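Sequence in, structure out.
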Amino acid sequence: SNADYKDFELTFEVKVGPGLNSGVQVRSKSTAEFKKGRVHGPQVEIENAPGESGYLYSEGTGRGWITQAQPIKDAYKNGRWNRFILRAKDDRIQTWVNGVAISDIHDSDSNQSGFIGLQVHSIPKDTGPLEVRWRDLRIRKLN
């Protein structure tokens, strides 16, 4: 996004190809002072099941997984469109995948405002083609 968002609800549908890992950066930053512009901040994971879809990872910071407990590994439905909901309010971030509550955390160590970015991880040379598709992206600011 061109704008920064603090408190918001983001909904979208996504479909990723087998073997592809993707995500959505939320409240993220990219500044010359931080690792030469490296994108950093919370990322909602998107990957085929079994996997970590809907859990939060601290991209680029070295903190690793923000969501420590990860008991649900199968909310994402492989080969189909999957509906994600993300709600960020103050230091609380909640996620749902296909109506299943995945993550509900308080994280005061992450950015409390920043851009939203759709992410695709790199793939090894001579791999693919792999595809991630997005549709029906909507964002609503929260009061």
